[in-house]
Amino acid sequence: MKNNLDKKEYTLLTNSVIEQSDTSGGHTLYHGAVPAMEQYDTGDVHFKVIDLDSLYQHIEPFESAAIHLSDNTKDSFVEERVLDTPIEDVFLSIFHLPQRVYWMEGVKGIEVINKPGVNRTGTVHRCIATTGGNPVFVTEKGNGNEKEITFVEMNPKGMGGSKFHLQKRGEKETLMKWHMLVNRNFAINLMFNLFMKRKMQKLVAISVDNLQRYCNEGKN
């Protein structure tokens, strides 16, 4: 039947299928349904066709609310490394949150709190840490192309976060820059530098080593 329809996007249902459904007849999708019939050797087949093109007029474009938590931060330090891994593999290992337990040092679990599914602007996750604390981060923004990718995730209060910048150096080589972001507030900077910076530098360096190892294992 569908070969005789001059439509690109549509739904086609036979009357028998519609009659078996208690709700289909009242659904707004069926208000513009056009009845039709075709004859076959086995008898007449009655059906309805719904043109889906008109539905696009009723769909409002979705735009995630902009998040600007990183605007008031600066780099505390940057871990820069060339990884012997294609940029696509590095990106997925970082951006796909569940994979982080396999390489991020001190993280034994990831709990997605808000906007589950594909990681995107507004996705909130909690890192279940081996030492406790369990920090929470929100995905702020990201952009990229086949040669370069950047994305940022922040503490929901803007205290700090991470900016990951990936640059393709070859088919199997990626330049990775992990920027540790800290709020520009003098007191916050002072506390971070005195009590956390050295520890975080060590954790990030080990994590990047683990990331390279994890990506290599994925190839085999």
How would you describe the overall organization of this protein?
By secondary structure, this protein is of the alpha+beta class. The chain is built from four helices and ten strands. The strands form two sheets. Strands 4-10-9-8-7-6-5 form a seven-stranded antiparallel sheet. The protein has a three-stranded antiparallel sheet with strand order 1-3-2.
Summarize the main sheet.
7 strands, antiparallel
**The level-1 CATH class of the largest domain:** Alpha Beta
Structural class: alpha+beta
Number of strands: 10
How many helices does DSSP assign? 4
Q: Order of strands side by side in the largest beta sheet?
A: 4-10-9-8-7-6-5
Main features:
220 residues, alpha+beta, Alpha-D-Glucose-1,6-Bisphosphate, Chain A, domain 4, 2 domains, 7-stranded antiparallel β-sheet, 3-stranded antiparallel β-sheet, 10 strands, 22% helix
Q: What layout of secondary structure does this protein have?
A:
Layout lengths: L9 E5 H6 L13 E7 L2 E9 L21 E11 L3 H9 L11 E8 L9 E6 L6 E9 L3 E7 L5 E11 L2 E11 L2 H10 L1 H23 L1
Antiparallel strand pairs: 1-3, 2-3, 4-10, 5-6, 6-7, 7-8, 8-9, 9-10
